[in-house]
Design goal:
alpha+beta; 6-stranded mixed beta sheet; 14 strands; globular; DNA-binding
Length: about 260
DNA sequence: ATGGCCGGCGCAGCCGGA
């Protein structure tokens, strides 16, 4: 079972690119972030025609997440628990039946948090604390759980082409990195880091020829509970998609689980 | 990563992104 995450940067502007990648890669489940669409305007018909069920959690203008899947989920949760006042559409979870039992898949779009010194940064850190609590609760179920998305965290210096340039940025602040590591230390595996020690990226800015210079960062991650990690066959980043027409600035990250 | 962009909203230019 192939499970992917991709910050699509506007699903309506990106529908042709998305359909081309679905056809090429044929994933079973796809977590999308930054759909920038309300639920009613999501390009549902095109994606259903490609053979996918669609569940969305959108809002007007920005943010928004979705989960596409070959089979219909048994259950869907919208919104990250822990703060009823949080209006931003950044999290959803779907539960699927497999021949080996249930798998839980979350699509998350963690706040950017820039610039530190504004209210955006504590919002990021409190959101991460809520995510840690959610991750701990799911861990207690002792079932395969996949936490996939745009974490907006550069975990280590080797996850940036030019780490010095990110000093002071919310994506690379010690508190952000600590909060990411705290979730790993609960018992979750960073799937891509488990399969390679190479410098690999998932995001290249549109500006200043970042893609051509390979000036990227690794901020899109798939974290696996022990029950999912034990079933991992492979993990990869589809970097070539960044070179397509009308690309997102992020590329898909895919894990293959024996489920 | 500091020169260079992009999508949404809505019809001009600003907001948000990373």
């Amino acid at each position: 079972m192939q499970i992917a995450t991709w910050n699509i940067n506007g699903v309506k502007a990106r529908i042709e690119t998305l359909l081309a990648w679905l056809k090429e890669a044929g994933p079973d489940i796809v977590c999308l972030q930054e759909i920038k669409s309300v639920d009613d305007q999501f390009p549902r018909l095109e994606i259903e025609s490609a053979g996918y069920h669609v569940e969305t959690h959108g809002q007007k203008g920005f943010n928004g997440v979705a989960i596409l899947s070959r089979t219909r989920p048994d259950d869907v949760l919208r919104g990250l628990p822990g703060d009823p006042a949080d209006e931003q559409a950044r999290f959803m979870e779907a539960v699927f039946s497999t021949r080996r039992g249930a798998v839980r898949v979350a699509s998350l779009y963690l706040p950017n948090g820039n610039p530190p010194g504004t209210e955006k940064y504590p919002y990021k850190l409190s959101w991460m604390k809520r995510l840690e609590r959610f991750a701990a609760e799911r861990l207690a179920l002792e079932e395969p759980t996949v936490l996939a998305g745009d974490y907006n965290v550069i975990p280590e210096p080797r996850d940036a082409k030019n780490p010095a340039a990110w000093t002071g940025d919310a994506l690379f602040q010690p508190e952000s990195r600590d909060a990411f590591r705290a979730i790993e230390y609960l018992g979750y595996l960073d799937a891509v880091r488990a399969v390679t020690d190479e410098q690999v990226f998932t995001f290249w800015d549109y500006q200043a020829g970042a893609w051509q210079k390979n000036n990227g960062i690794r901020i899109d991650h798939v974290l696996l509970s022990p029950e999912a990690a034990g079933r991992m066959r492979a993990a990869r980043i589809d970097s070539h998609v960044r070179g397509w027409e009308k690309p997102s600035d992020h590329v898909p990250v895919i894990v293959d689980l024996d489920l």
